[in-house]
Amino acid sequence: MGSQKIPILLNCLAALLGAGGQYYYKKGSTLLSERIINFPIIIGIGLFCLVMALFVIAYKLGGKISVVYPFYATTFIWGTLIGIIFEKEPVKMGHFVGLSLLMIGLTIIALQIEEQ
Length: 116
Prior knowledge:
Blueprint: H1 5-29, H2 39-60, H3 65-68, H4 75-86, H5 93-115
Helix pairs in contact: 1-2, 1-4
């Protein structure tokens, strides 16, 4: 099995796109009764199609699901940042604790990869 670095990077990119898709779903949800064609939701669907394509490419390149897929969890980080920056959502200490634990877990996985 080849290096997991490119598949991991692809899943991290997928996470960013997935969080963007969620943002557009949220934006589109406010327009559901107002428009026949809902462009934010269409954009969200398009982003999730790209997410799925990146998953397939990552696995085609030899990505191990037990290594690569956990990095998609960075979508929680991106989603939190999008909420803070674009929606001006408040952030509590629990957010920082949870996101820190996520980063610790991903670091442990990444260190395991380097040992192989």
